[in-house]
Amino acid sequence: MISVAIVGGTGYTGVELIRLLSSHPKVSVDLLTSRSHAGTRADQIFPSLRGISDIVFSDLGDDTLNALQKCDVVFFATPHGVAMQQAEALTQAGVKVIDLAADFRLQSLVEFEQWYQQQHACPELLKSAVYGIPEVSRDKLRNANLVGNPGCYPTTAILGLKPIIEAQNAKNTRLIDERIIVDAKSGVSGAGRQAKLALNYAETSDNFEAYGVTGHRHLPEIEQGINILLESQFTQRVRFLPHLVPMIRGMYSSIHLELTDAGKAVDWQQAFEDSYADEVFLDVLPTGIYPDTRSVRASNRLRIAVYQNNDRAELTVLVVQDNLVKGAAGQAVQNMNVMLGFDETLGLNFAPIVP
Amino acid sequence: MISVAIVGGTGYTGVELIRLLSSHPKVSVDLLTSRSHAGTRADQIFPSLRGISDIVFSDLGDDTLNALQKCDVVFFATPHGVAMQQAEALTQAGVKVIDLAADFRLQSLVEFEQWYQQQHACPELLKSAVYGIPEVSRDKLRNANLVGNPGCYPTTAILGLKPIIEAQNAKNTRLIDERIIVDAKSGVSGAGRQAKLALNYAETSDNFEAYGVTGHRHLPEIEQGINILLESQFTQRVRFLPHLVPMIRGMYSSIHLELTDAGKAVDWQQAFEDSYADEVFLDVLPTGIYPDTRSVRASNRLRIAVYQNNDRAELTVLVVQDNLVKGAAGQAVQNMNVMLGFDETLGLNFAPIVP
Amino acid sequence: MISVAIVGGTGYTGVELIRLLSSHPKVSVDLLTSRSHAGTRADQIFPSLRGISDIVFSDLGDDTLNALQKCDVVFFATPHGVAMQQAEALTQAGVKVIDLAADFRLQSLVEFEQWYQQQHACPELLKSAVYGIPEVSRDKLRNANLVGNPGCYPTTAILGLKPIIEAQNAKNTRLIDERIIVDAKSGVSGAGRQAKLALNYAETSDNFEAYGVTGHRHLPEIEQGINILLESQFTQRVRFLPHLVPMIRGMYSSIHLELTDAGKAVDWQQAFEDSYADEVFLDVLPTGIYPDTRSVRASNRLRIAVYQNNDRAELTVLVVQDNLVKGAAGQAVQNMNVMLGFDETLGLNFAPIVP
Amino acid sequence: MISVAIVGGTGYTGVELIRLLSSHPKVSVDLLTSRSHAGTRADQIFPSLRGISDIVFSDLGDDTLNALQKCDVVFFATPHGVAMQQAEALTQAGVKVIDLAADFRLQSLVEFEQWYQQQHACPELLKSAVYGIPEVSRDKLRNANLVGNPGCYPTTAILGLKPIIEAQNAKNTRLIDERIIVDAKSGVSGAGRQAKLALNYAETSDNFEAYGVTGHRHLPEIEQGINILLESQFTQRVRFLPHLVPMIRGMYSSIHLELTDAGKAVDWQQAFEDSYADEVFLDVLPTGIYPDTRSVRASNRLRIAVYQNNDRAELTVLVVQDNLVKGAAGQAVQNMNVMLGFDETLGLNFAPIVP
Q1: Which residue intervals define the domain Semialdehyde dehydrogenase NAD-binding in the entry (chains A, B, C, D) (predicted)?
Q2: Per-residue model confidence as pLDDT tens digits over B174-195
Q3: D287 inside 8 A of chain B by CB
Q4: In this structure, is residue D32 part of a structural domain?
C-alpha cells in the first residue's frame, strides 16, 4: 500500500480527500495533521466518517516533517502559504507533493505575489511544479514530484476551452474572437468550511449574487491555463465573473464566445467529442441534453455541452463539475494516480448522487 | 407621531423591527443605537432598507440613556442582559420598554439565573413586567410599562395549548394527560444573525437535526406560560424538543397530547374556533387545511390546526408562525399597539408572502 | 374606489396581484375569475390569504365579458392567448386592460407568431398597446388603455441597458460594442405554479442549470426593448442565456458589455445615478455594495450595480429584482397607478423581506 | 456474476438501485424493464449514469416473465400492486424477489386491503414473505425467496425501538409507557419522482409542514414491526406523525417515550450500544454527538442517539437515515446480500457525502 499523509484535514477538501481515499484500493492514509485538532478523531468532527475511518488528527510539532518524509504522497489541504514551507524538503526526500491550495498553481512569481498578497517561500520551485489537470498535462504529471492542484473555476474554464484553442492552433486561423466571457456559478462549499456571516444559511439561502466582481484570484489561473494551450499567435483575454448559488456542491460555467467566419464553419459538437473521446472523466453531452450540476454531484466527472447559434455567431460552452471532487479533492487523487502510474480512475469511478 | 428607539438593530429582530415600523402610520423610529456600527446607515448593512429608511446607527456613549428617555417607546433588540441595565431608569422616566430578549420573560429569578447563567440587574422588576402575548395578557398589557417579549417557541406552545387549558379549567376536570410533548421545528434565522460554522449554508442546507435535546431555555418559559393559564388543580409537564429546519423563516410546533375520557368528548375544533373567534392574528384552520409555515411567511399571523384521533385518544395541535414576526418583532409591535391604546393591528395587517 | 378584476388568479402572478391589491388604498378587487376553481374561495387555495381577502373565484360563463366591462381595470394573469380574446371588447367599453402574459408585449405580429406558435386574435391592437415599463414609457402609459406587462427577464435587461443606450444616443458615438451578453438567472417561481417533474424539489434543489439555450421567448422582447430606446444608427445584438437558481423568488441579470474608447471615458456610475435619480423603484447601488436578490425580495424595487474594469474595457451591469413583483405583478400595479393618474408608488412602497 | 433484474427503474428507488448495483462486485444488472421508457437508455433519463451504466429500458411484453425467470434476483421498484402479479411465478421458478413497494410488507391481508385500497393478488404469499430488516430478521432472510422491503419511516422506528422492546422482553417488566410517539421528518425525495404541484420547488422550499395527520400507511407497518419484536404481555400503541422537510434526502425520527420506574433505572446508552455492537450499518452515537441527516447522506448507515432526561422520566430516541438508501434501495441490496449468502456489506460500505 502507498502511504499517504494529509496536512490539514479539517476543511471541506480535507474531509473529501479522506472520504475518497478511504475507498481507494492502493493507498492508506497514515497521517492526518492538524494543529488545532490534534488528538481528536476525524470522525468526531465529521460524524459522517464514523465506521469509515478511525484516523486521528495529530500534531507532531518538530517531528512533523520527519513523519511526512516517510510517506509516499503528501496532500496539502491547507490555506494558501502552508505547502510552500515544506514542499522543498519533501520533494528532496522523494515524497510526491500535491497542494490543493494555490502555492504552486501560478508559474509567475509576480502574479502569485500580486494576487495572494504574500511572499513565496520557494519561488524556484514554481517552474518545475506541474499544474495538475491530467487531461491537459498528463505526460508531465507522470514524472512530477510537485503538483499545484488547480482551482475549481479554472478547471471548468480550461477544459471548456481546450478543444477550441487546440482547433485554432491546428488551423492557425482565428476561430473565436479575442474576448472570452466566463460567467461562472458555484455552490457555497466552494467558500470553504468557515464561520462567516455572509455564509450563514439565513444570508445565503433563497438568494443569488455575484462576487469578486472587480477581480478574483482564479482569473490569472484561467489565463495561464489558456496560455499553456496556445500555440498560435492568437492571444485571448478573459472576463471572469463568479456567482454564489444557494446549493452545497456544484459548479457551472457558462462560457460565451464569438465565432469568426472560420469558426462558424466548424462542427463544434464533433470537435469536442473527438477531443475528449478517450477521457473517462470528461463527458461531452449529446445534443439535446442540458448539463446540470446534480448530474456530477459527489463524482469526479465533468460534463460539457456546446451550442452553436449560427445566425448570431455565438458559441456557448456549458461546463459542470462538483467543485469539491473534479474541482478539488477528486482531481488531486486523479493526479496522484497518474503520478504513481496507477490506473487513472482508481478510487474515483463511482456514480454521481441523484437525486 | 410616537417617538421610538431601537437599541441594537443589527440582528434579525432588529432589522425586522425597522421594516415593520417603517410602515407603521403612528410611530417614527428616531433613534437606533449600536456600539459596533455607530455612524453607519442601517441600509448599508441591510441594503434591503435602501429607499425605505435613512436612519443611522448611533452610539451616544454616556448620553444614550438621556436620549432614550426622550422617546416614548424603547425596544431592546439586544442579546440577553442588556435591557435589564436600563429598564429601571427608562420606566421611571415614563418610557415604555419592550425587551425582545429574555431579561423580563421569566418571573422567577431562580429560573432566570439557572437558565441564563447570569445575575439579574433588576430582579425587583421581574414581577411587574408583563409577559407579552396580547392574546393571553391583553388587559395587563394596556397598563404595562415593561414588557418581556416572548420567545418564539413559547408563543406557539402557549397559544396552541391555551384553549385546552382553559377548557380544562372551565370543566374542572382533567381533559388531557399530564404529559405534553412539544416537538418543535424552526427555520435558521431563529439562531440569529451570526458568524457560526454550524449555521454555514454548507452545514445546514439539505440537513435536519434536533438541538437542545438535554434542555433548552424556552422550556421554563413554556411551563410558566402554561402555569399562568392554569386555574385548576391539574398540573402539566412538558417535554420540549426543538429541531432546525433548512429554511430561513418559519416555526412549526407539533403538540402531542393524550385525552382523558372527558377530553375525548370535547369537540376540539369548535373549542379552538370559539376561543380565538375575535383574534385577528390567530387563525384556527378549518378541517382539511393543513398548516404550513409559508402560509404565515413574513406576517404576524399564527395558524393552528387541531386533530382528534378518537380511537387512539390522541389530540394533535399543529401551530405555525413566522419566528421573526409573531415570534419576535411583530409581536413586539403588537404589544406596543396595545400598550399605547392603538388599534392592535396597526402596521401589522399585511399579507404573508407566497410563494 | 376603483373597481378591479383579475382574470385567472390561480397562478403565482395572480396570487401576487391579490396580495398587492389587498393593501392598495384606492382599488377594490371585485371580480376574480377562474373556470377550474369557480365557487372556491381564493384563500382555500392560498391559505396565506386567510384574513386578508375573502374573494371567491367565479365563472360567469357568457356573462363574464359583461361583468368585466363593468370594472375600471382588468388584469389578465392568464396563460398566453387569453387576453387577446377580450382585449378589444374591453378597451372599447372603456376598461383599462393590463395583460401579464405575452399577448401584447411584442409589437411585431411576425415575431409573436414565430415565438409563441399561435395566431394573434387582434393584431390590429399590437401597435397601440403600450409595453409597460413605467421608467421607459411613462408618458405613453398615462394615456394607455391596453398594456402589455413585460416579461421578467426583459425588465432587468432593458432597465440595465437604458442609461447606456441613451448615453450612446446623446453622444451619437458608439460607446459599447455591438454585442450584448445577458447571462441571467431566475428563481423557480418564474416557471409558474405547475405540476412538472422538472420543477419537483428533488430535481431542482441543490442544482443549477441553464435552459432555453437555443432560444427563449424573452430574447425578441429584450431586442425590441433596446430598439425602442435606440435613436442612433448603432444597432445592438443580444445573446441571452437564462439559468434556473434553486430559490423561490429573485432574478439576477449579469450583463457583459465591451466598451469602445469613447465608452471607456464615461463615468458609468455617475451616468446610471443621474439617469435614475428620480426613480423611486430603481436603485443604483453605490460602489462597494454588491446587489443580491434578497435585497429586493417581495418588493417592487430593482437594484443595479455597474462595474467598469478599465484595463479590460469591460462594463458589467448587474441587475436584481423580484421576478414576481417588479418582474410581474408589482410592475402591473405600477402601470395601473400611472394609467389612472395615481401616485406611482401607491400600494407598492413596502420594504423587502430580509432575511 | 449473479444476474439481476430491476422492474420499473424510472423512480428514485430505481435509479438508486442502478447506482448501488453498478459498483457491486458480484452482481450484474442484466434487465431493466419499463413500459413507458422501453428502448431508452437509462442514462438518457438520468444523465448522472452516463459513463456508469449503458443499460437500456426494455419492454418484453409477454416475454417479460420468461426473461425475469432467467435472472437470479428480481427487484421491484414499482408502485404498489405490481410485484404481487409476478411474485408467485418468479419464486416458483427459483428466483429471489425483493419488492421495494408495499405488496409484501404487511402480513395481515385485512390491513393491506384497508390501507392500500386494493385487493391482493396472492394473499397466500403474505405469511411466507419476510419483512426485510436484516438487523431484525437476518436468519429468516437467509432462506427467504420473497422479501417485502420495509418502508422508510418504519425502518427508523423499528430499529429505534428494538433495543427497548427487547430489554422489556428480557426483564418481563414494563420499562416504557404504552404510548409511543414517533414524530418523523422526511426529505422530499420520499414522495417519489413525480410531477405534482405540492412538490414544486416554489411550494416546498423554505417551508415545513406535517402530512398524513389523520393516518399514514406506515403506521400499521410500524405497529407490525413492534409486534414482531414483542415477546411479553406488554402491548404498545403508536402515534405516528410525518412531516416534510425542504431537503432532498434524509429522514429523522424523534421518538418520545415515557419511562416507568424500572425503565428509569436502565442505562439506555449502554443498552443500545450493546444491542447493536455487531451491526456495521447501525451506529449508536456516543453521548454529546447529535445525529443529523447529512451524516448518513447517500449511505446505508443509520445512526441513533438516546437521551434520558431522568427528572422528567422521558426517553428520547433520535434516528437518522438516508430514506433512499437504508430506507429503500440500500436496504434492498443488503437484503439481497443476506439472501445470497454474501458479505452483508458488499457494495454498500461507502462513506456518506459531507458536505
Answers
A1: 3-144
A2: 999 999 999 999 999 999 999 9
A3: no
A4: yes
